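Quick one: co-fold with nicotinamide-adenine-dinucleotide.
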Amino acid sequence: MAERFEAAADHLGLDPGVRDVLRTPDRELTVAIPISMDDGSLRVFKGYRVQHNFLRGPCKGGIRFAPDVHLDEVRALAAWMTWKCSVVGIPFGGAKGGVVCNPRELSISELERITRRYTTSIMDILGPDRDVPAPDMNTNEQTMAWIMDTYSMHHRRTSTAVVTGKPLNLGGSRGRPEATGRGVMISCREALKTLGMRPEDTSVVVQGSGNVGGIGALLLHREGYKVLSLSDIYGSIYNEDGLDIPAVLAWIQKHRRLDGYEEAEHLPNEGQLEIECDVLVPAATENQITSENVDRIKARVIVEGANGPTTAAADKVLEDRGVVVVPDILANAGGVTVSYFEWVQDRMGYFWTEEIVNSRLEQTMVNSFEEVHTTAKKYDVSLRSAAYILAIDRVVSVYRMRGIFA
Ligand code: NAD
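Sure, here it is.
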């Protein structure tokens, strides 16, 4: 991501001082989380919260629980959130948090104690006007409910707007679970429009079948695209006439994996991204399109549902070949957009129907795609470079207006 930032900064002609301001996280907090374990022993976990930039509004970004989380990763992801919020024009800066732990080895009550102690330790920098966390890897709506409750108990009032991704009955938003997949579908549709391609003539391969891939595939299928292949961590399925996506998702719901689904050919994951198709949607994990496999990828359009699915080296090859890549910071920003809607609804104390959420999301994604596309034409660059140029330029213009408080 650093090189993408520098390339966009070059296009904008930013001077070294401004680059330094934007590269440097505003605040980094490392905390110790001592916990009494269920067996009576005492363990100390480590937690991080990095706030990259809050020039455009409170910081926003997920909290992940994983054994290998480290400060450099959290720092990079926090900056990524700044650009993602900026590219879709929502009034947030970027942040990210992490706790070094293995959730698989922890009981629910240990997880609850870790979450509450971590929240208490970073409480001074949290708040609806300061920093609003969300779920990320291995955290979910239960984690958010604990954070919200801990924050609220300390502040002596129920403060739902301190986190997003909450359960519906605790201030969550309708449409949030589908929002990232919906944004992927909208970005795909808008990209195809620019190429004069119609959904009914377009075949799609989706990597992953979770929240982003599964829902993205379902919404693409409903729009008339022929979804040829889906995968999970164990393998992929393929049907040259197009998969019956509702039936596949019902199978996953029941069996937790694609294995055993009958109306398709079963293939190993190696090679799934290389299937002949018009659109490829990597929606599983990072670093999937690399210099090793990029030459065998046949899609004309790639819509990045996952964060960072394409390495910088592969990106260059795709760009040279004229493959249209809708970059992650735009394509998967539907989730953070509806998180913003959740925060707005919590602050108003007035909750929208799913139709309203979806139509505002649609508006945001369509406008953002259009702005990125126009920027790409203006600078004669890829959609990815354009997304960074647009995002960075918005932050810089706010920085110039606000000036430096000293
Ligand atoms: P998820 O856990 O719901 O689903 C991930 C899916 O990918 C599962 O089907 C899993 O089996 C599959 N998978 C994992 N590794 C794979 C591999 N190597 N090959 C094939 N399949 C594999 O996760 P998600 O929420 O759908 O997130 C997917 C990606 O999208 C991540 O990069 C995440 O950071 C990003 N993202 C998610 C959201 C969101 O709102 N959920 C928002 C923005 C970005």
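If it helps, The pocket of nicotinamide-adenine-dinucleotide is lined by residues 180, 207-213, 231-233, 269, 283-285, 305-307, 332, 335 (CB under 6 Å).
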